[in-house]
Amino acid sequence: MEMLHPEWSYQAVLYEMNVRQLTAEGTLRAAAAKLGFLCDMGIDAVWLMPVYPIGVEGRKGSLGSYYSVRDYCAVDPCLGTMEDFDAFVAEAHRLGMKVLLDWIANHTARDARWVTEKPASWYERDASGAPAVPWDWTDTAKLNYAEREVWRAQGDAMEFWVREHSVDGFRCDMAMLVPIEFWNETAQRLRRVKPDLFMLAEAEETYLFDGGAFDACYAWEMHHLMNDVAQQRVRVTSLRDYIYADRRRYPRSAMRLAFTSNHDENSWNGSEFARMGAAREIMAVFTFVVPRGLPLIYTGQEIGYDHSFAFFDRDPLPAYGSNPFSEFYRRLTALRHANPALASGERGGEMIEIRNNAEDCLMIAVREAEGNRVVAVMNLSPYAIHADYYTGIYAGMYTDAMTGRPGELRGHVEEDMAPWSYRILTR
Fold first, then answer.
1. Which SUPFAM superfamilies match (predicted)?
2. 171 with 47: CB under 8 angstroms?
3. Does residue 79 come out as left (phi exceeding 0), alpha (psi in the -120 to 50 range) or beta?
4. Which residues contact residue 184 at a Cβ distance below 8 angstroms, ignoring those fewer than 6 apart?
């Protein structure tokens, strides 16, 4: 099903905010003071990791998992008050940014309000009659979606945040573990309250776009391929094959979250510095130019913090301020905002490739839309290469997006390219 997305989302850049680790205080009030910096960097929407009170039973670490929810309609006292939350949203809106709330529909904490206040049938049960534990998430209890009242209560709680607290959408945790019919029905309900609601699924099943619940889903497979290319377990040909196969799998309107890091990758598999090494920068560029991509920046990336955050404890950023990393991301967000060809969904240009002599290393991608063209020349390899290619109809004068300087793309190009080097040309 093709759908129209909120107008702001087509050329948006998302930021995942880990409130616990962003500031020394670890509060919503302190986090709100960072919104101006993010706005200046070109962020359009802030996805807040879960803000709800966290379960105590089976708690992991000193503070527990954000994803072990005790009460869907309250704010974790460690982060502040509901007034602090409202002030955060108001400040984001004042700066022209949207706020997406992390939503965990699959499970609650083991000592959630619903466990004692709602019928036993609201939870899947193990042999002993206790709420079932999904996988090894021993601090959580699995909700039972065979019970229609669970659907209604989830919808009520989500509507509470939209109607009473002005959130602009949701990032839906492990969306594939919950029936798609639930998401379709609930999204329809929420859009009656807020027509330009934005829904992002943390999953990449193609059926997520059947029925119109979701605007975007994760591109996990692409992310893992980017790590593999960076570590040279595979060559760039695998990434190229993925892009063409992916084009056939999803409706043209589907947006795909593209990232070099997020809270799961960072905490469990290491920072982008650890996983991607010298390829870190070009892979970030790739997330901004890939077809249908919806680029994401995770807490710490905007200042180049090379660290894997503790997941269940306080582990805050030590310092914060403008540096070459924030300048790099500022240039990338400006590139995305200025070029309709790079839009997500059905508005952006499909990828056309310029063939070349080193295709197991070099990808030359052209995207065009609304009279705008972007040419990305990317050596996605650890090898110095001698590139040789003909540009045909794409020859001409361009602007280098990362330097702002004018330059010519000649009809026949021969050039030496350093490992992991790139040029992004716009006109």
1. (Trans)glycosidases
2. yes
3. alpha
4. 210, 211, 212, 213
CA distance 61 to 42: 34
pTM above 0.90, yes or no: yes
CA distance 426 to 367: 10
Distance CA(114)–CA(168), nearest Å, equals: 26
For position 1, what pLDDT does the model report?
42
Asked about 221 being catalytic, the answer comes back as no
- Helix, strand, or coil here: 89? helix
Q: What is the pLDDT of residue 4?
A: 86
Which tokens hold the place of 85?
């939350």
Residue with tokens 């709330």: 101
Sign of CA dihedral 239, 245, 250, 254: positive
72 CB contacts (<8 Å, ≥6 apart)? 52, 108, 154, 157, 160
202, 204, 265, 368: which one is catalytic?
202
Cα separation, 25 vs 224, in Å, equals 33
The CA–CA distances, whole Å, from 86 to 162, 163, 196, 260 equal 12, 12, 19, 30
156 is catalytic: no
Q: How far is CA 250 from the centre of its chain?
A: 18
Q: Choose among 339, 337, 274, 331: nearest CA to 300.
A: 274
Residue 84 CA, chain-centre distance (Å), reads 24
> Mind listing the pLDDT tens digit for each residue in 226-269?
999 999 999 999 999 999 999 999 999 999 999 999 999 999 99
CA distances from 177 to 75, 201, 204, 418 (A): 25, 11, 12, 44
How are beta strands 422-426 and 396-400 bridged, if at all?
antiparallel
What CA–CA distance (Å, rounded) separates 144 from 136? 18
* 264-317: pLDDT as tens digits: 999 999 999 999 999 999 999 999 999 999 999 999 999 999 999 999 999 999
* Contact (Cβ atoms closer than 8 angstroms) between residue 370 and residue 387: no
Q: What is the pLDDT of residues 57-91, one digit of tens each?
A: 999 999 999 999 999 999 999 999 999 999 999 99
* Cα separation, 75 vs 311, whole angstroms: 19
The C-alpha atoms of residue 118 and residue 121 are separated, in whole angstroms, by 8
